[in-house]
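tool_log.txt
---
The assistant was asked to compare two proteins side by side. It first ran the structure predictor on the initial sequence, then on the second. Raw inputs and outputs are pasted verbatim so the downstream comparison step can read them without reformatting.
(1)
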Amino acid sequence: MSRMVPGHSAPAAGFEVPLEMLSACHGRIEQQCSTLRRLQSHLLAHGADDQARVAAAAVMRYFDLAARQHHEDEERDLFPALLESMAAGVPVIATPVGAIPDVVSHDIHGFLVPPRDGKAIAEAIAILAGDREKLSWMSRACRRRVRAAFSIERLAQEFSYHYARLVGHVSLAGVGGARSTPARNSEPLRAPEKLED
């Protein structure tokens, strides 16, 4: 028996097809954002009438209840597995839903195929199985991508940069007893290096 995602009647949004469920969830968020965009012009034209209040309450209810945990499974299960596979040099075959296209570039780190397209999946597998040079090249690209964008060092560099920008200070000393001074009295902050595939 298929468990359905609340607010969706399409059987494709069941828990048995998690990537399609993720896509359906993203579709719901896009709908809510579209409502917010329309609400903005409605408020300018009609003020905070009953229709605006009902729409705003529905959007707020959605984000309070459903959207808070929207990415929980994605962050807890899907992306760690995706990044671990890529770090091990395994090219990806996935559907372009959620943040997957932000991590995986088609024909560089693997293949992005349409949802529920068994033929496209089979073709991607056949390409990787039949072209060892492409498989090797994609494998190296996957490892480079994870090292460049998701390593502890990279994340620490980005966190430090953004934190320093927010507080207006940069650290002048190493770990333990670090002192800081306003950024204007020290070297200019450097943005994290540009990511490359």
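(2)
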Amino acid sequence: MDEAVYVLDSTAFYAGIPYQGRGRYYTTYFVLEEVKHQSVGSSLLHTRVQVTEPSVESLQRVKAMAAKTGDSNALSKTDVSLLALALDLSKDGDKVNLVSDDFAVRNVAPRCSGFLCRGPISRASGSKSLGRCSARVAGRSTQTQR
């Protein structure tokens, strides 16, 4: 499929990411809980964002990768669910972009392979675009662009 796929952490909603551009947008129920106190949560249900959960297999794989990187204690349930969802979606051959500014997520993501991890650029910079933060597959060079 040619259309980009985005898996969104709560910071992406605060930056306005799901309301711009082309692509398919996904998140988990943990993120929905984090943003429900804002108008972001209610408007989320009326956008192109699909709220879903990852497979048990991908959750286990992410936890194993986090243990190898030493990030197990730094990842929240939300972080693990987002990484696992990105992993699930990448298995379909889609170009998956995980949008998060969380350091532990960005550290574990390249080791899961199959998807990119991007950080939303803050509203303070005047832009709501995405900045690349890591490479696609473990063992390849990592890039940062903001």
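---
observation on (2): The first strand starts at residue 5 and ends at 8. Confidence is low (pLDDT under 50) at residues 121-146.
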